[in-house]
Amino acid sequence: MAQEGGTEAAIAGQENGSAEATAAVFVSFKPQLVVPAQKAEEAVQFYKAAFGAEEVRRVSHPKRKAEQDAPLLLCAEIKIGSSSLLVCDDDAAATKPGEGVVFRLETEDVEAAVSKAVKAGASLDGELLEGEAPFGAGLYGKLRDPFGQVWIVASAGKSCVSDA
After folding, report:
1. pTM, 2 dp
2. Measuring CA to CA, how many Å separate 101 from each of 15, 27, 35, 152?
3. Which of 32, 80, 104, 132 has the CB geometry, 3.0–4.6 Å to 86, for a possible disulfide?
4. Could you tell me which CATH class the domain 24-61+70-155 is placed in?
5. Domains of the chain: which residue ranges?
6. Which long-range contacts (C-beta less than 8 Å, at least 24 apart) are formed by 20-23?
7. Whole-angstrom Cα distance, residue 134 to residue 159?
């Protein structure tokens, strides 16, 4: 659902110069590798075997039943050396065939960060949403920069909540 108070109005106001830009502070940057549907688990196992990746967290399908064909794993956060990345099944995060990387920025103020990006020339794909998604929970928005790259701006500390 969209945030009350009109993120779109705030964005439009900033574009018209009637509102000051709010500084957004990012707490993390995580590349998100989007693999073909139902291949995230296989990809994680490959990265463990090939590169010594360590699985940090994972998100499972919230409504998956044992007898369903839907994969158990939606998204996993892995570490290779000191770097982290998210490995996720293809979904709405990547809308064109062949888009395999989505950049994720985490912040305490998603609305301000999205507004700043839109003012700089990015386009907001849809509206800001609140809730569970394959790449985490909380408030998030999907942007496309002027060069076609997809960026997810999400609430800090909400990615890949552990299933444990």
Report:
1. 0.61
2. 28, 20, 9, 11
3. 32
4. alpha beta
5. 24-61+70-155
6. 21/115, 21/116, 21/119, 22/109, 22/112, 22/115, 22/116, 23/112, 23/116
7. 9
